[in-house]
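Lab manual, section 2.4: Encoding a predicted structure.

Procedure: take the sequence of the chain (480 residues), apply the prediction step described in section 2.3, and record the output as structure tokens. A sample record is shown.
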Amino acid sequence: MEEHSGTNLGASKNNDLDLDSFIKQTLAETRMPEQPADGAKAESAEKAAMGGTIISTPIPTPPKKEEPKPLPPIQQPASKPASAGRQEKPSEYDATFKEYQIGDIVKGKVAKIDTSGILVDIGYKAEGLLPAEEGEGLKVGDDIFALIENLENREGYVELSKKKADNEKKWKAAYDAYKNREVLEAKVTSAVNGGLVVDYEGIRGFIPASQVAKKPETTLQEFVGQLIPVKIIELNRRQGKVVLSNKMAEPEKHKLQANKILEELEVGQVKHGKVVSIKSFGAFVDIGGIEGLVHLSELSWKRVNHPSAVVKMDQELDVFILGVDKTNKKVALGLKELLVDPWVTAGEKYKVGQLIKVKVARLTKFGAFVDIDDQLEGLIHISELSTQNIKTPEEAVKPGDEVEVKIIRISPEEQRIGLSIRQVALDQERKEVEASIKEQEDKQKVTIAHAIAEKERQKQVAEDEKEIYEVIEPKNEISG
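Recorded output:
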């Protein structure tokens, strides 16, 4: 049976504690005997330690070992089979409801509020009734936890108490902290002879003077009003007695700070931290007592081969909270979320058909990835690396090469840019062919034009010569 319904003070025998005689004596008085093998007797011993039963919906009790049950009396007589058959329907109907007992803590939803009390739907055959004085701040639809005090009152309601349920939950939390040796935080309310009186979540506790971590010159009175780390070293629910140690918790107070930070973390927050570890899959950043992971894919908007290309050890930087797992105490962080997303403006900055200079970053069997600028990366597919038929990218380029490429496709939504070296070469060849054709055409045009011009010139020369000769050699006049 899982120990959640009470405090097993017998576990205190395993605590290697250097306590004063008072604590040792108290522990000896409250030490539980070994639990019997019988499950019911073990449960009774555990109840005795806690002074009551703690059973709730969010903290379910493991099912007891089922034992053969006798048939209902109405089914036993063989002479009345019909009656037995009629009794099956109510049994099946009743089975659709949860079975509760007095002392159980149940979860319910506020159904109605008036001056006589608060009706709560607890998924039972009858609604629960909460006293009006315990309904402060509640409204219809609120989910609450309440303790069952009576399964049926005169009006047929299940009598509930939210106040007692809250108190039980506090003691359950204290017991879990005691069993798991968790570091807690308690407020010192007063200093008395022999130690400090503290308050932890509404539960009063005592720290013996020998368990207070203090300097010789420091008085107990100076701790009043302070929040200090503590560990529960003794818990007796029946007597309402909680003994704590400040000395045992002091070396682990950083855990308390980490837990507080974890509780305050929310997705979307920006925290300042320090790089404390770099692995191949990412970088761990301390954000004030708790470490989070910046995965390789969250370091930059472009692909990163190793975190050391972006961050360095002991580097201080701001990080974005991507996810918080409070159960497993894990935090996912991001760096690129604090940078302007280059893909937002990529469609405006780059267009299909545009020629740009890029640097080859790395090669894969299907092509080459290139750096377009500080944040963007593009892909030259192997079919676009050369005008020749190549089998591997290495036949065309190598990392570090600076090449001119043509943008053949761009998809900011998918964060992809397709590039081509082949298209640049083909365009260049096309231009050279066109230039050669134009040159030949121009030459042909020049030859014809020259021929016509020469012919015209010669014609003009001939006419000019004729006129000249006519002036130089006038016709002879024949006399009669």
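Check your result against the sample. The first helix runs from residue 21 to 30.
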